[in-house]
Design a protein that fits this description.
Layout: E1 2-3, H1 13-16, H2 22-33, E2 40-44, H3 50-57, E3 61-66, H4 69-82, E4 87-90, E5 102-107, H5 120-129, E6 131-142, H6 144-151, E7 154-159, E8 163-172, E9 175-185, E10 191-201, H7 205-214, E11 217-223, E12 235-242
Parallel strand pairs: 1-10, 2-3, 2-5, 3-4, 5-6
Antiparallel strand pairs: 6-12, 7-8, 8-9, 9-10, 11-12
Bound molecules: S-adenosylmethionine.
S-adenosylmethionine (SAM) binds at residues 6, 14, 44-48, 50-51, 65-68, 71, 92-94, 108-111, 114-115.
């Protein structure tokens, strides 16, 4: 039976994603945040909380928010294990404004690609509503180039001792559909199978800039991943301020 995105994958996401360079990536983001005087942060689409924990270690007072209870469960356990202070709240950024205001909001590693096009304005309005005036919004999306050149009509696979990951990927107009299957090794050596569908929406830089301006943000910079040339990068990273 197919499950929602980040159900079975929640327990394995950070492990399977350990080659994304979390450490460098978080240091780059912290470098961006350091240019401002900030204390309270909300990490939207925090998932297992890697960035939330890194920002907390860097001295920010962090809240992580995610639509997936399974991801939040992992994030809470991991924070406890690592002795990192962070609060976690369940929520859909396109449905409801977070319960308080923050100095900054982050949404790192594709969270906004999961927002359907008809919900983008609502999601950005909710981010604006969660920020104090002049607050910083730092987020990224996977670039259209990545979807067209690296995701369309591919199969991604990762075979580890405890878990095997397969993803059958296709691009249909403005969205990418990823059919993910996990085989998780049990203690008795048999495998449990979990299937989930991920749908990501492909946003151009121009589309995102228009939506940001419309919803009360000034865009300070748009860069590629870790400051790369955005024309060549798999990611577009937006640094914005609430007007
Ligand atoms: C690719 S994961 C990234 C997780 C984490 N930021 C990381 O890099 O390890 C994207 C996350 O966005 C969350 N997400 C997707 N749509 C969301 C929404 N509408 N509101 C809040 N979180 C959402 C997913 O549940 C998932 O945990």
């Amino acid at each position: 039976m197919k499950q929602l995105a980040y159900t079975g994958l929640a327990e394995w996401f950070e492990y399977l994603n350990d080659d994304c360079g979390y450490e460098n990536w978080s240091q780059y983001l912290i470098g961006q945040l350091r240019a401002y005087s900030l204390r309270d942060g909300l990490d939207v689409g925090c998932g297992g909380g890697w960035f939330t924990r890194a920002f907390s270690r860097a001295g920010y007072r962090m809240t992580g928010m995610d639509i997936s209870p399974e991801m939040l469960d992992f994030a809470s356990r991991k924070s406890l294990q690592e002795g990192v202070r962070a609060e976690y709240i369940l929520g859909d950024i396109s449905a409801k404004k977070p319960p308080k205001r923050f100095d900054f909001v982050t949404a790192i590693n594709d969270c906004f690609n999961y927002i359907p096009k008809q919900s983008l304005d609502k999601a950005l309005k909710n981010v604006a509503g969660a920020l104090k005036k002049g607050g910083v919004f730092l987020f990224d999306i996977s670039s259209p180039r990545k979807f067209q050149e690296k995701i369309a009509n591919t199969v991604s696979a990762d075979d580890r001792d405890e878990v095997t990951y397969l993803s059958f990927n296709r691009v249909e107009e403005e969205r990418a559909i990823m059919e993910v299957t996990l085989f998780i090794r049990r203690k008795d050596g048999a495998y449990d199978r979990r299937d989930e569908t991920h749908i990501q929406y492909i946003y151009t830089e121009e589309e995102m800039l228009t939506a940001l301006h419309k919803n009360g943000f000034t865009v300070c910079a748009v860069e590629g991943h870790l400051g790369e040339d955005k024309a060549q990068s798999d990611r577009l990273c937006f640094l914005c301020k609430k007007e």
